[in-house]
Amino acid sequence: MDIFNHKDYEKLWYDRWVEKGCFKAEVSSKKEPYTIMMPPPNVTGSLHIGHALTFTLQDILIRYFRMKGRDVLWQPGTDHAGIATQMVVERQLNEKGIDRRDIGRDEFLNKVWEWKEHSGGQITNQLRALGASPDWDKERFTMDDGLSSAVKKVFVKLFNEGLIYKDKRLVNWDTKLLTAISDLEVEQREMESQFWYIKYSLENTENFIVVATTRPETMLGDVAVAVNPKDERYNQFIGKNLILPIANRKIPIISDDYTEIDKGTGAVKITPAHDFNDFEVGKRHGLKNINIFDQNGCLNKNVPPEFEGLDRFVAREKIVKLLNQNNLIEKIETIINVVPHGDRSGTIIEPWLMDQWYVNAEALAKPALESVKSGETKFVPKSWENTFFDWMENIQPWCISRQLWWGHRIPAWYGPDNKVFVAENSKDAQKSADLFYGKKVLLKQDEDVLDTWFSSALWPFSTLNWPEESDLLKKYYPSDVLVTGFDIIFFWVARMMMMGIHFMKGVSPFKEVYIHALVRDEKGQKMSKSKGNVMDPLDLLEKYSADSLRFTLCAMAAQGRDIKLSEERIIGYRNFSTKIINACKFLKLNDCYNFQDIDLSDIKLPINIWILNKLIDVYDNVDKAMINYKFNEYSDSIYKFVWGDYCDWYLEFLKPVFKSKVSEDINEVKYVSSFIMKSILKLLHPIKPYLTE
């Protein structure tokens, strides 16, 4: 049995498809449109197995509906990936002994664009290797001129509507990268930690209350101790004061439902400037925010002089030592707890109080919620709607500013008294400022850039030349389906819905959202470099072919069930290609060629009637599967038909017919067998494009 050699065909066919314009959407076409917005991979990225699944499923849909006669647009592009790209270029400069601050912002950005020109976008070449068929002529980049213009317009409009504002709130602060980062860029790691039980003395008494903490260095910023109002142990103390150890400040005992009676001692230190939950408690009780850290994670002037300038973890050791010396530690436990780390820097993230730009996400979330509740936008599987509702109904202000140089610089300028002027360009900002002050003044642009998710939230319409009323926008917005993983329902899906509905006259950017599962290893464990179980799709493509990997992912993509991937499964589906090749060789050997549509009324032999009825069933099953995003049922239906019904049974039954010398019967089986194979190749093409071509 010959094994299909994919290396002989894949690049040849892909280049030919692109050359002939097979993937192009035709905006002038009268055909019904079918649109999918490609989730833009990071320009620094490399294809991983999650990408392989997402893009394979999208490409199956795209090829299927293209063959159905729809005018298909699969909109490709890449994301500028603010932090990741800046890190790559900074690292390259550091290797040459250059610090970005020495060359300045403009020259550094020139270096980033040079890197992007020569090395960025490697992942789009890898998508080609996978067989992805988007309209490459329409490829966009989140920092290209058109998208940058859209970003500025959206920012200015939302600011003028009061939906973008500046506020002092807690952010995830990366003390190594020196920027705020999003929750998605925070990695929660389980670590062994110490749990210190510390005595806080009651004012003017010999008594004390014990609080437990894993971060004793933050106690210098404590402003209260909270107890649950139903906790009878502490009712008599509510409203009284404690003396904060080391700092020797008075802090009140407050009651708040946030505290859990059975957790720790039931008394919780409240540090609003350094804990997200404490920040909310502080707002409810009108407590002061005391920020004790600087941007490097060192203690600032708001602490006793002997701690000022110390790194947070050095300060921790010194505080614990002092507490021990004063007999203020009741006990120490060793626990396993979750500690937030920057996914790129690897450093422990510090909740830090600072001025940042925010979007009023609560206001924008309401129409998006209604879109799902009304059925305008549907989640598949439907159970993901509950996750969406939970996030959106408890949504917090969205921090959109980042302390980086690479990205969309915030279109805000400050006057001499720090009054802000928001405009799409410096000329308009200057005009507004001169009018306000009654004279020409010097303006300074905001140093920060926008969160990458801000520009990608505009992707479904900014890529279609919005704000122009373009033919592209009219025809391809909204898209038919978004295919993505569950981990970015909030970060990308929800934000695209919020922005799309707000700026596109109330129309959600997609009709359906298909959420696929995770790809795990064969034992069901999540893939990670530390476990050594990561499967590189590029290696799999090289070894087994794009078709084999695609078919495997499709066959295992059952709704609501994670994919347990193994090389053995991929080898099995590679053998399926070989089975089809050998069936074609059998047909060729027996001169089975058909160049015309079949007339069912001419068919007489029972075996041919049987296989044609089976084929009709397969077509029905495939159509139902694709409409309902049941990819595994699509592939399973074809696999069983080809391997079992067609190859193992039908072709075997043909052998006696060929030996019979009855020309009428032989002509009929030649006619039907080749017609069936032609149909098989069409049915299989969305999943196995290279083999079938």
Helix/strand layout:
Blueprint: H1 10-19, E1 33-37, H2 49-67, E2 71-75, E3 77-78, H3 82-95, H4 100-118, H5 122-130, E4 140-141, H6 145-160, E5 164-174, E6 179-181, E7 186-202, E8 208-213, E9 224-227, E10 241-244, E11 249-255, E12 267-270, H7 276-285, H8 312-325, E13 329-342, E14 350-359, H9 361-373, E15 378-380, H10 384-393, E16 398-399, E17 401-402, E18 412-414, E19 420-422, H11 426-437, E20 444-445, E21 449-450, H12 452-456, H13 459-462, H14 471-476, E22 479-485, H15 489-503, E23 510-516, E24 519-521, H16 537-544, H17 546-555, E25 563-565, H18 567-589, H19 606-627, H20 631-660, H21 663-684, H22 689-692
Parallel strand pairs: 1-2, 3-4, 9-11, 15-23, 22-23, 24-25
Antiparallel strand pairs: 5-6, 5-14, 7-8, 7-10, 7-13, 9-12, 10-11, 14-16, 17-21, 18-19, 18-20
